[in-house]
Structures are given as C-alpha cells and as structure tokens.
Amino acid sequence: KMGDQKFGEAFTPRILEGYFSTEEQPLEVFKCQTLEHCPGGVPGRCPGRREGIPCSECPSGTSWTGKECRQCSGGLVVVPILAGGVFFLGLIAAYYAIPPRITAKATQGETLSMCAGVATGLVQCLAIIGLTSVRWPKAFESIAKSSSVVLLDMEIFSIACMVGGTNWGRYIMSLAVFPLGPLWLLVCFTSSRCFKNCMCPAPWTWTRLLNTMGHFLQVGFSAMSALSLQPLMCYQHPNGQHSLLKHAGVFCSTGEHVLMVAGGMAILIFLVVGFLGMCAWAAWHIPRWSLIRPHRIRAFAFLISRFRMDRWWYGVLVLLRGPLLSMCPVLATDFPLAQAAMISGVLIASLLLHMRYTPWKMPLVNLVDGCLQAMLLLLVAITPVDPGSASATEDFHQGIALVMLSCMAFVFCFLAFSVALALLYQVVAWATHRSGGSPLTFTEDFVVLNLGRRHSSAVTVELIKEVSGRLLEMEADKAEHHLDQMHPDDLSRIIDTINLLQTELAPGDAAAPRSSASSRVVSLRKSMTSDMKSDLQPAAMSDEHGGGESMAEGVTDVIVETEQEIESEAGEMVSMVFMATGDGNDINSPIETNEVLVHEQLNAGAESLPRAGVDQVLNGRPASITAL
C-alpha cells in the first residue's frame, strides 16, 4: 500500500499509467479512459484532488479546471449563469437574424451559413471521434478534447458548482439544453402574441418560429445524437466490471446508469429520430408543397436554403452523419481499431456522396468541404496508435497528425478569407453606389468563390439559339441515333439542362419527357425561383420597417383558409377549359400540353390545387401571393 519493498524498487508492484486501484483492494484494477486522470504508481493515487473510482469526480464544492479540482468561487458560479443567459438571448437574436428565405443564388447570409456549417460539422466530427477509446496522437487528441465544448461538456462550464460533482447530474443538465431551446422559443412566441403591445412591435410568426427551431436542432443534431448514445457506451475493466466511456465513475446497470439511459433514450426517440424523420418527410413533400403550399417550404428553409435547388434533399444526408459516427463506439466499445474502421467507413460514404452531388450553392465551399472530409478520413485511417508500438512509430503518427491538422486549418482559413474579401468588396461597392443601391447579392464575377469566371449571358444565349437551330434542322432519326450512342450520364445531363432551361429561361407549356425525380426538381425550381422571389422579397423590404413578415403571413393564412373552398372549383375549371378547347389533336397545342401538366400534378398525389395553382399549371408559370 505504501509502495515500499525491502528487496528494492525493482520488486515493488506499481500500477501502470491509465489504470487505477484502491488501497483496500489493490488487485481490483480499473481502466481509465483519460491518462491524465490516472497516473498509475501507488494504489489509490489520483491527481489534482480527484476522487472516486477510477479518479472520475471532483470533491463536492469543487470544479475541474483541466488540471485540478478548484474550489467553487463566485467567478466559477457566474460562468454557467452567463452561459445560460447567452443561450436564451442568442435564440431570440437568431429569430430576427435568420430570415426564412430561399434563393437560387447564394446570398451573403447563406454563404456565411455555409462556412459556419462546414466548420461546425468538422468540429462536431472531431468531438465525436474524441469520444472513442482509440488512442490518437497527442496533437489530434488535444484538438478533439478542445472540440468537446460542442458536445456540451459541462465540466468546461463549471456546472459542478451548481449541480454538484455527480456525473449523472452533469449529463442530465447537458441533455436538458436541447428541449429547453424549442420550449424557450415557444414561450417567446406565445408572449409576443399575448403581449404584443408591451414586449415587441410585431408578434412572432409560425414560419419564422419553426425555421428558428429547425436551425437550433440542426446545429446541435450531432451533439444531441452523441449525448443520447453515451449511456450505451460501456467498456470493460480488467476486473470484469463495466463503466461508461465518457463517465467512468458510472458503472453500468446501476441506478445512476438507469437514469442516464432513460434520459438519453427520451432524447434519442423524441428529438433525434423525431427531428430526422420530420426532415425526411419534409424533403419528400417539398416539391408538392412548392405548387400548393409554399408557406410550408419557408418553415423548412433551414433544411434546404444552403443547398442547390436540385439537391434540396441533401440536408437529410448531412444530418445522418452525426448519428452514424456516434454509433461506432456503441457497437465496438472495447475494440478501438474496429471503431476507427467504422468511422473511416462513415467518412468514406460521406465523401463519396459529397463528390457525387456537390450540394452546396457556392463552388468554393464544395471544394473546401471535400478537401476537409478527405483529410479527416486520412487522419482517422492512418494515425491510430497501438499502445505497444515503438516510440518511432508514435512520432511518425504524431507528425502525420500535425501535417493533416495544419492543412485542414489552412484550407478553412483560405475559405474564410475569400468569403471575407468578397463581402468587403460588396460592402464597399454598395457604399460607393457601384451596385446602384440594390440589395447585396453574389451576382458579380467572384472568380475564387465560383472557381472560375461566369460565362457571358449574351454569348450563352447565342449558343443556345445556334444549337436549337441545328437541332430543328436535324432529322429525328439521325438525332435519335446520336442519342443512342451517348453515355447514360450524358443523357441525364441533357434532360437536366432541358428542365433547367424550361423552368428558368423559357417557362412555357412544352413538357419535356422527364423522370419522376427530375419533375420533382422542376416543380421545386418553379416555386423557389419565381414564387419565393415574388413572395419573400417584398416581405423582406417591408420587414425593415417592421411588420412585413406579419403582413406576408397574414396573406398566407388567408390562402390556406380558402383552399378548401377553391378545391372543388379547381376541378370544375380544369374540365371547363378542356371542354372549351376541343380535342386538341395538334401536338403543338398548348392546351393539350397543359392538360398533361395538370394531370401530372393531380396524379402526383396533390391534396388540393388552389385557383392560383391551377393558373400556374395552365399558364406555365408559378403562382405567387402577389398574383392572388
């Protein structure tokens, strides 16, 4: 017990670094997941005044500062209070700062949001990888531990000074953040409605409320997934007992563990699975909503606003990465190399999907995100350290980790610097009236952001007309022969180009043969390019004077309330139009094509088509609130 032996130090048994045993039972050895907490040596020894088995907690009235358990003082108690105040005020600020707008081209806000999304996703991946039992190089391990703040590690906020030093208490406090966010926003929404004359100039709207809630849950989705699965990460000690990977002082199947499992499963079922299912449901129905209920799309602007219009569904795949990474330490808690292999598989799938679809609106963001994912994959696949490896191998892994982390930092800083320069240029241009006083948008030729110069619109129009003339002169049999010789991917690109031209450049009644997926893209593009622009831009202009959002929402509410009355009239009107136009045997007859388009929408399962929706299909243009 004292670490002494009369035969000399060579005959004195000592505990290895990373392990712990008590003085009463020195042969009952426990494994520590953090080497700094268990220096080894004499049984019962814990650094920095830590206590418990295995050195997992600070004494009551103290808080862990990274090196020692420090006595709770007034300053440490104020830290969680300030963090809570910033959290609640930040949600209110987010409601006003994040408008539910969807545009075809990336705006300043969307570009900044894309950069923040790439950075947040990378930091969350690093934090989740840091939860594993894999032994990483010290440089990588220190970065992963620093990233644990995004997983709401309450030790960083000295929350032990408020709820005590128990592991399960800190865990429940971390979980409570996620339901508290939407509940706080709902309370603010109710208060603005009930006390609109006292608290705020205009009452909150459901559209912005749901969009803000979605942004909050989307940003914290990976952290929410990792936290909810932490009670399922049980690893085995050398003595046969099991503890939680993150909270080593909580032994599995005990009362504390049962409470943590109950809390984690509640968050997993109702928030993680529920939110993911809602986003998948919305992504599936958004093309139909774009024709009959555009106000619903604005409520899900958080999911689709940063992505290209033909990749509106990609936000669901981005959400999936967090839960899949969090499942790796759950499935192989005691097998570090298996965890690293599974994490590599998830990152490979994410990288392949990104390369296939390049979903972000800004080309430079696509390039940077792909580079960051590739370097993170190399980091995870190459640098896991074998505990029994030689020091030379560890030095090699350490060097590889430093190079990869430095390259990742450089690539992201390049992205941030490029976006900052573009923003600064447009601010200066706007201040000097070079932009004509119009709202700032990324419409100019930013070579770095677009990864090349934009083609001249005049030249593009001439090329389209020239190619169209050649195609009209070409015989149908010859054109079909050339198409038969083309690669299937080239044919798909031609169909996508036709749909894009039909929707954006020459909206009309010509219905190109398209697959169900491409028709869903066309319907979405029609709504987001014309309907959302005509609807949201006037609301945004009036919103600067206050109440513009409420006015737009009021008109939308009127539309929704009258849909049932118009539903029966819509079918009668379509029938009357078809009867009045005759049989329409001419293949170029616009009425025949319109009938096909109408039946396409009806067969797609639309519940009802309001009058403006029927006009949209018959006239070949999207409906808008101003048209009503």
Note the topology.
Layout: E1 19-20, E2 30-31, E3 62-64, E4 69-71, H1 74-97, H2 108-130, H3 138-146, H4 160-163, H5 167-194, H6 206-219, H7 221-229, E5 234-236, E6 242-244, H8 255-292, H9 294-299, H10 301-304, H11 314-331, H12 336-357, H13 363-382, H14 391-431, H15 447-450, H16 457-473, H17 476-484, H18 488-505, H19 516-543, H20 548-580, H21 590-603, H22 611-619
Antiparallel strand pairs: 1-2, 3-4, 5-6
Key phrases:
two-stranded antiparallel ribbon, about 625 residues, 6 strands, globular
Structural summary, described in words:
The chain is mostly helical. It is 62% helix and 3% strand. It contains 22 helices and 6 strands. Helix 2 packs parallel to helix 13 (363-382). Mean pLDDT is 76; it is low at 509-516 and 529-628.
Counted beta strands? 6
Computed over alpha carbons, the radius of gyration is 30 Å
- What is the residue-mean pLDDT, rounded to a whole number? 76
Strand content: under 5%
Structural class: mainly alpha
Q: Residue ranges: pLDDT <50 for 5 or more in a row?
A: 509-516, 529-628
Order of helices and strands: EEEEHHHHHHHEEHHHHHHHHHHHHHHH
- Please bin the fraction of helical residues: 55-70%
Backbone shape: globular
- Order of strands in the sheet with most strands: 1-2
Helix count equals: 22
The description of the largest β-sheet is:
2 strands, antiparallel
Termini gap: 86 Å
